[in-house]
Design a protein that fits this description.
The protein is mainly α. The chain has ten helices and six strands.
Length: 429
């Protein structure tokens, strides 16, 4: 009875295994090697079952006991296929090639192959799943960065649109201002022409003539005042620093010397202008002197030109003021300095390049002051400090300034006792 029970169990297991093999065969029919093994196993099991049934029928054996719910190998194949499909999906995500064929080695049975494949795919799936999680984490980080960049892009775009609108508004304003400037220039030219025509008939002795400036002339008091200001901030400052570096004089002495140079240049220009008018008057009185080569070497008589001729001469001098040979004026100025400020000359101050530029620019500007009608005025006559006419030197105390010790920079007027154009700089105590 025990042997019959064992045979019945064996037949039931064989049938279950055969059914499992049939299911595996349906799932693995794409693999030639597995297909061959399954067909051979099925054929052997079916033959054994048939032979056993013949023996059972001949010996009239009872009905075998209920079959066990086996199919273990079939379930392994099913799990293996599920793992392979999952592996294939993971490989597809990472762009790796997929090989469906099992790498069965010779000498291994179907069960061992299934178990080996099961373990291999499970390990590979774990590894790919870990990589997939890392990639997903990276993707989330990139999405966060992308979101921030999109916000920044939106802000930048809004700023750009705002800037473009501002630029459009500015361009419109610029075009409007440009148009207004053209119209103002046209109107200005018209006013210049009208004013020039209206000022020509005015007589020199008219009380209004001193307060009227011909804006059509380049050499006029307003422009001269601007050049005078520039002279103080550039050439005067360079000359002062050069003397401080190359001589032993104190700052107080240097500033007084440079102020004296400017006043001497102004006086020399006035003398040249006066001599020119006297020479013209002498030539008008004696025209034949024009061919005498020594006329300008002789002392001419102190004659006075008529007012209308004097005005005309000054106008012509202003028109050609840039053609003046400044070197002659500088030579006349240098001779005066040698006589009156010999201690500075002996130390080679006049040979300094910065001082030389200051002498030339002083002569050029003071000449343009002298040929105005009436002449402009440089003044260092004040003895009491007046905040309306003077500015204090940096080292002086504003609260105690009362008496002027000396001038550092002369005050400029449009004519003598006229309107103040540039304040004088003084040292006061």
């Amino acid at each position: 009875m025990a042997s019959d029970s064992k045979k019945k169990d064996l037949i039931a297991d064989a049938k279950n295994f055969c059914d499992g093999m049939s299911n595996v065969f349906m799932l693995k029919k794409r693999d030639p090697q597995t297909r061959h093994l399954l067909e051979k196993a099925k054929h052997l099991i079916e033959s054994l079952i048939a032979d056993n049934q013949k023996l059972s029928s001949s010996s009239n054996v009872g009905v075998p006991r209920q079959q066990r719910s086996g199919g273990g190998m079939g379930q392994l194949w099913v799990q293996l296929d599920e793992l392979k499909r999952e592996n294939q999906n993971l490989r597809r995500q990472f762009g790796k090639a997929q090989d469906d064929r099992s790498t069965t080695q010779k000498g291994q049975g179907p069960g061992e192959v299934i178990i080996a494949e099961h373990h291999r795919f499970k390990q590979e799936n774990d590894m790919l799943r870990s990589q997939c999680e890392k990639q997903q984490t990276t993707i989330k980080e990139m999405e966060s960065i992308n979101a921030k960049l999109q916000e920044e892009y939106k802000s930048a775009r809004i700023a750009l649109e705002t800037t473009q609108k501002s630029m459009e508004t500015i361009l419109k304003d610029y075009r409007s201002m440009e148009s207004n400037l053209k119209s103002v220039k046209t109107e200005n030219e018209s006013l210049k022409s009208r004013l020039s025509k209206q000022t020509r008939p005015l007589m020199r002795n008219d009380s209004l003539s001193k307060n009227i400036e011909n804006i059509s002339e380049k050499c006029r008091p307003t422009n001269i005042a601007f050049m005078y200001n520039t002279l103080e901030s550039q050439e005067w400052m360079d000359a002062k620093e050069a003397m401080e570096d190359e001589s032993d004089f104190e700052e107080e002495n240097i500033t007084q010397f440079l102020c004296a140079v400017l006043m001497e240049a102004f006086q020399t220009s006035k003398e040249l202008h006066s001599a020119l008018k006297s020479a013209i008057a002498e030539l008008i009185r004696k025209p034949t002197l024009a061919i005498c080569p020594t006329i300008f070497g002789q002392e001419t008589r102190k004659l006075k030109l008529p007012d209308d001729i004097s005005d005309g001469v000054s106008q012509q001098l202003r028109q050609f003021c840039d053609d003046l040979d400044v070197g002659v004026l500088v030579n006349m100025l240098s001779e005066k300095l040698k006589n009156n400020y010999s201690e500075y000359v002996e130390q080679g101050v006049l040979e300094n390049k910065a001082v030389g530029r200051y002498l030339h620019e002083s002569a050029r500007i003071t000449w343009q002051m002298a040929i105005q009608q009436p002449p402009m005025c440089l003044s260092i006559k004040d003895t009491r400090f007046d905040d309306d006419k003077h500015k204090l030197w940096w080292s002086c105390d504003q609260s105690r300034a009362a008496r002027i010790d000396f001038f550092i920079w002369p005050a400029l007027y449009d004519y003598e006792n006229g309107n103040l154009l540039i304040k004088g700089c003084v040292h006061a105590s």
